[in-house]
Amino acid sequence: MSYEIKMYQRVLEIVNEIYIKSQKDSTVDLYRIKDLINAVNINQSKSKKWLITQLLPFIPVDSKIFIAGSWYGTLSIHLERQISGSIVNCDIDPLCKHYGEKIYQSSDIKNITDDAMEHLMENQKRYKCIINTSCEHMTNQDLKLMIETKHTDAIFCFQSNNYFEVDSHINCHNSLEEFRESIAPQSSDNFLHKKSPKTILYEGELKLENCTRYMVIGK
Amino acid sequence: MNIITVKHGKKYRAKHVNYLQEQLMEYYPTADYFCYTEDPTDVDCETIPVFNKPLVNKWWNKLALFSIDMPFKGPCLYFDLDILVESDPHWYLQWDGLSLISAYWKRDDPQYYVKHRYDTVINSSCMTWHAEQHNYIWELFLSNYDYYTRKYAGIDRFIFHEDIKYNLFEDGLMDSVSNPKFPDAPIKSWNNLEYVL
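Above: the input entities. Below: the structure tokens describing the complete assembly.
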């Protein structure tokens, strides 16, 4: 059985557990079922596979990878088998760690509950690759700071989208260029502030059912 | 007393804030008027800038009003910007904890009580509370705000389902334009309809 089938099977088992628990306990959060299913839907799967295809050539050997706003950690499951280093999943929702570890466990993946920005401010230099597929949920100020304070050699791989209609999306963009300029400006304004622009290694778009996803990989 | 509005995004403009204040000044000339907004342009009353973190969209900003970091002291009275004031709402208002409107247009329909729908039969178009006494609501939201904004389609549902204590105003304070029932109500709400000035 493939790792992906195992992942889906595990999510279904967790959904079943939540439902059975809710039969005896009216306080059980049934929305968690929908959230878990959303985390493994076709758009999520496409976005993550796209990320891995484009990012893999740039990931340094044996590096420690940080995933900001990792949700239930499904990206790390896809990524782990293709890299030689280790991964830290970080999400502010404490139940992401709980369910993430129920879905998959590995000695190379660590799940932590924290504000990604605050964690990075204290541990920035530990990571050689910073992935953020939740940029639409975070402020531009935080995203820029993540990039500006990263280890000089570290790679960043950030994804956002133009899905403005979703309430929890506080930082969507109208185009790939707009997204790139918001996190790693290449324009001359940047030189005026005496900051050298980050090297862009890849940038691209992925058309999905409800929106377009943008990705920028840089150093 | 503090009379407060929230303007965030592009749906409502400064003229909605100013017109609401103009209507309320007739009944509350000595109140302190505030607008919590990211864009204070042309707003006549005192404005409070939205918090930088967490940055939230539209109506979710209403929850920040319960934060201890707000400049309010004493009783607070909140109105949505699609409210029309037709007479003095004073007789209906109470400051016994947090008070909201009973959504009479939903409350008798069993579908709104289906648990996993996470819907609500309360409405926050008008709210009253005492400043500094409900910071726990904001703290609760902060504890997992991204999840809450995915789970609930608005703050009414958040308040209804997250074990937050609240009271309801007596019927007759507000008439919903899309579901009229109280023609003599002091305030009318354009809930979910376009409110053009």
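Note for the figure: Chain B has one domain: 2-189.
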